[in-house]
């Protein structure tokens, strides 16, 4: 599957299904070579950002916001060809969504408060001196800003 096709498909699916597809795609592109814990942490950051509303109102908006996550950083022609990693990314994304749907006090958070992450082997963001929440595999997770759920 090509990334462009997946993003097109997400644009025509019902919002909840589209968000699951966008989150799965992001987990795959950002962390398919990381541990399950690392993949869950990537999903958690995307969900926390969605709740804040600062990058958009849906997971698809968040992960396709300019220069924020892999879906906008890699070529649209990128193929998601590792079927085992794709199946794992889908499972992790769905599990992360179920966990995040719980009341805040009942969620299992892996990187509490993390609003950003970076793989330092390929990126050196300006905010890399922010508070480090955790390092999991090749990714360091940061609390660059306090994200609070937007008011309903």
Task: Provide an overview of this structure.
This protein has 152 residues and is mainly alpha-helical. It is 47% helix and 10% strand. The chain contains 6 helices and 3 strands, in the order ααααααβββ. Strands 1-3-2 form a 3-stranded antiparallel beta sheet, with helices on one face. α2 (15-31) packs across α3 (36-52). The longest helix is centred in the middle third of the chain and has 18 residues, at 83-100. It starts with a helix and ends in a 9-residue tail after the last strand. The mean pLDDT is 93.
What structural class should be given to the helix and strand makeup? Answer: mainly alpha
From the N-terminal CA to the C-terminal CA, the straight-line distance is 37 Å
Q: Indicate the overall shape.
A: globular
Following the backbone from N to C, one meets helices and strands in this order, namely: HHHHHHEEE
What is the residue-mean pLDDT, rounded to a whole number? 93
Q: What count of helical segments does DSSP give?
A: 6
| Helical residue percent band | 40-55%
Main sheet: strand order? 1-3-2
Low-confidence stretches: none
Described by strand count, sense and barrel closure, the largest sheet is: 3 strands, antiparallel
Q: Which band does the percent of strand residues land in?
A: 5-15%
Number of strands: 3
Radius of gyration: 14 Å
């Amino acid at each position: 599957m090509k990334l462009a096709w997946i993003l097109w498909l997400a644009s025509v699916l019902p919002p909840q299904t589209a968000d699951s597809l966008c989150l799965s795609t992001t987990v795959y592109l950002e962390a398919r070579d990381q541990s399950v814990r690392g993949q869950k942490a990537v999903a958690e950051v995307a969900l926390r950002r969605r709740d804040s509303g600062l990058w958009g109102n849906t997971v698809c908006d968040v992960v396709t916001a300019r220069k924020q996550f892999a879906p906008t950083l890699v070529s649209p022609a990128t193929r998601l060809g590792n079927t085992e990693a794709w199946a794992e990314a889908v499972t992790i994304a769905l599990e992360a969504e179920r966990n995040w749907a719980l009341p805040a006090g009942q969620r299992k958070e892996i990187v509490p408060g993390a609003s950003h992450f970076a793989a330092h082997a390929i990126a050196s963001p300006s905010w890399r001196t922010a508070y480090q929440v955790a390092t999991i595999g090749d990714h360091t997770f940061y609390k660059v800003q306090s994200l609070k759920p937007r008011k309903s």
